[in-house]
Specification:
This protein has 329 residues and is of the alpha+beta class. 24% of the residues lie in helices and 43% in strands. The chain has a 15-stranded mixed β-sheet that branches. Strand 14 and strand 15 form a beta hairpin. It is elongated and about 140 Å long. 20% of the residues are buried. Belongs to the P2X receptor family. Its main location: membrane.
Length: 329
């Protein structure tokens, strides 16, 4: 038996006739993998954004921070908000927030034009897993397996099926996100006449309802008064984080190991010596010599033993008489 780990690649797919879509401020727009998955290509993982807030055309400057409310400059000197060169403890009394240097405007503030997009039609999405695994210690040429080598393995599952197997609610996941572990589990019996080994999908909610949040941005330069100025579009997304892996166990009957175990077992029970003696006396070519040296005929010492016993009795009698004589004296 051997335990092993493999590799998995995951991609997002959708129904070719019915696509998922994003709703932004009541406006519906089609969405494909390039719109929903960020980053687009990631090893053994995939992030599907279900809710995304986009703040366009941010640039570096001094602006109010909604997380630091104030009424006077002194309020901005409390809690570490005086930290040159990024902040100097200045309060923008018109907005009621401290002024700090950063990417402006901040999301959801005046002039930010933050747009929130919601994924709909999640039931039309599916994931495709391409997995491999290898069992090198068991030997043989067919111990490396993949879902792409022609075996009748299922590789595509609808997203609602994946969520159901993970025990998470589709509505809650769309709003707050989730972190799921997707495992292709292999249980293989190798060797001649064995059945085709097919992986099974196991889904685990490792986030335990904590959701998943991610930020990313697209950077570009835009001319202002003839001078190029660095800008960015900030994306704040919640969604489904999928971590994929491949692992399994394989078993193979080894004739050499079976014979070795048989003889080890026989050596541990009393019948082993009897079986060895039977083989030596009846099957080996030198069995005649074995019989001769196993038993050796010795002379008959019965007369000698009788004389010894007689002498011992005589000695005991003499000793008894001496003791008796000594007591009479």
């Amino acid at each position: 038996m051997e335990l092993s780990h493999g590799t998995v690649a995951v991609t997002l797919s959708h129904n070719p006739n019915i696509s998922a879509y994003m709703v932004t401020n009541g406006v519906v727009s089609a969405a494909d993998e390039a719109d929903l998955v960020q980053p687009l290509k990631e090893g053994a993982a995939l992030f599907l954004a279900t809710t995304r807030a986009t703040t366009p055309m941010q640039k570096l400057g001094n602006c109010t921070d909604p997380s630091t409310s104030c009424r006077h400059d002194a309020d901005c000197s409390v809690g570490g908000h005086t930290d040159p060169p990024l902040s100097y403890g200045i309060c923008d009394e018109s907005s009621g927030y401290c002024i700090t240097q950063g990417w402006c405007p901040k999301p959801y503030t005046a002039g930010a034009n933050t747009q929130v997009s919601q994924l709909d039609g999640i039931e039309h999405l599916a994931i495709t897993l391409i997995g491999t695994i290898d069992f090198p210690r068991l030997g043989g040429k067919n111990n490396w397996m993949t879902t792409e080598d022609g075996r009748n393995a299922k590789v595509t599952w609808s997203l609602p099926t994946v969520l159901k197997r993970g025990g998470v609610d589709q509505v809650e996941v769309t709003a707050s996100g989730a972190v799921l572990s997707l495992v292709l589990k292999w249980s293989c019996q190798l060797g001649p006449g064995s059945k085709e080994c097919l992986p099974a999908l196991k889904v685990y909610d490792i986030g335990k309802g904590a959701g998943f949040y991610n930020e990313y941005a697209q950077y570009y330069q835009q001319s202002e008064g003839g001078t190029p100025v660095l800008h960015r579009d900030l994306n704040q997304a919640r969604g489904i984080r999928l971590l994929v892996s491949s692992r399994g166990v394989a078993r193979k009957i080894d004739a050499y190991a079976c014979v070795l175990q048989l003889f080890v077992a026989l050596a541990l029970i009393p019948i082993a010596s009897m079986l060895a003696d039977l083989i030596m006396q009846n099957l080996f070519s030198e069995r005649r010599h074995y019989r001769e040296y196993k038993t050796e005929t010795t002379p008959d010492f019965s007369d000698v033993r009788a004389k010894v016993e007689q002498m011992e009795k005589h000695t005991k009698s003499q000793n008894a008489k001496r003791l008796e004589y000594g007591e009479e004296a």
